[in-house]
Amino acid sequence: MMQSEVHTASVRADDRYPSRHQPVAGISARQDLVVHGRVEDGPLTQRDLLFYEDNGYLGFEGLLDETDISSCLEELQRLRQDEAVKQAEEAVIEPGSRELRSIFAVHRSSKVLRRLCQHPKLVAIARQLLGGDVYIHQSRINYKGGFRGKEFYWHSDFETWHVEDGIPAMRMLSCSISLTANTPHNGPLMIIPGSHQRYVSCVGETPDNHYKDSLRHQEVGVPDDESLARLVDEFGIVAPTGLAGAVTFFECNIMHGSNSNITPLPRSNIFVVYNSVDNPPQAPFCGLPPRPNFIAEREDISAVPFSPPSASS
């Protein structure tokens, strides 16, 4: 197992999930609920809620209609061809090329994508799983173009959001919206189902301005090989796939990643991170200044406007 320098900051008394403080990694039990809402709170059935409780994710084919997806795909292509977008702080460029890897805060910069992030069907599910009003902690496009789209290594989002953003509890989730087909071959999301019930503390001091490197290639805040092997041995790996319009919700602490894409088929998704308004960020637990607001919302934690979707929407 790789070992690294111990972080000089002491563990805070209110830190229930310390990480990057010790010279060796560790696995501990989750201390928070997984499902906060009830059947009567939204569209998910009791079976859905139990599946999410046990596995940490839910997948839906065709949750969004063709009109929703086509307008977003046009917007995705427009942004990709805009050289000014590549120069923006919110843009992440693939290592070794000028290709876009990600664009953050798309719900702020694009009216089309803001409508998607606030779609009643998505918000209804997030509200039910998180037990009430939610705000958007983060939104982004992940481009994984054909032939050279790079991998996203195994990680728990919560570990980073907790350590570097100061999110205190596991009361948040991600929503991955497929704008192109996600096949078994073009680098789909991979999940270790059930791993959300474990917390893997990572090794390595958090560098200043870590986000500038980690968004391109993360080395700090990733699990060690031994912990990953234990999780896979216990839970296995699944890779949700689907056509454009498919949606996967996954729990903030679940271990996930994706392979590189060497096929000609692009795999482009929009990710929306919903956090409970009762779980706002505090001072980062690593003792460093917080990451920029376009990566981790700290200023506007007002609830996403919501009215229950009609049966035909």
Enumerate the strands of the largest sheet in spatial order, edge to edge or round the barrel.
2-10-7-12-5-4-3
Number of strands: 12
The overall pLDDT average reads 88
Q: How many helices does DSSP assign? A: 9
Percent of residues in helices comes to 10-25%
The computed structural class is: alpha+beta
Instruction: Tell me the number of structural domains.
Output: 1
Reported CATH architecture: Sandwich
Largest sheet: 7 strands, antiparallel
**CATH hierarchy class name:** Mainly Beta
Order of helices and strands: EHEHHEEHHHEEHEEEHHEEE
Q: Please, what is the CATH homologous superfamily?
A: q2cbj1_9rhob like domain
Point out poorly predicted stretches.
1-8
Straight-line distance between termini: 51 Å
Strand content: 15-25%
Question: What does the radius of gyration come to?
Answer: 18 Å
Q: What is the global morphology?
A: globular
What is CATH's topology name?
A: Jelly Rolls
Summarize the structure.
With 313 residues, this protein is α+β, with helices and mostly antiparallel strands. 46% of the residues are buried.
What does this structure look like?
With 313 residues, the chain is α+β, with helices and mostly antiparallel strands. It has a single domain, classed as Jelly Rolls. Helices cover 24% and strands 19% of the residues. The protein has helices at 46-55, 66-80, 83-87, 106-109, 111-117, 120-130, 157-165, 211-214, 225-235, and strands at 26-29, 57-60, 91-93, 100-104, 134-142, 152-156, 172-178, 189-191, 198-201, 247-251, 255-258, 269-276. The strands form three sheets. A seven-stranded antiparallel sheet has the order 2-10-7-12-5-4-3. A three-stranded antiparallel sheet has the order 6-11-8. The longest helix has 15 residues, at 66-80. The radius of gyration is 18 Å and the shape is globular. The chain starts with 25 loop residues before the first strand and ends in a 37-residue tail after the last strand. Residues 1-8 have low confidence and may be disordered.
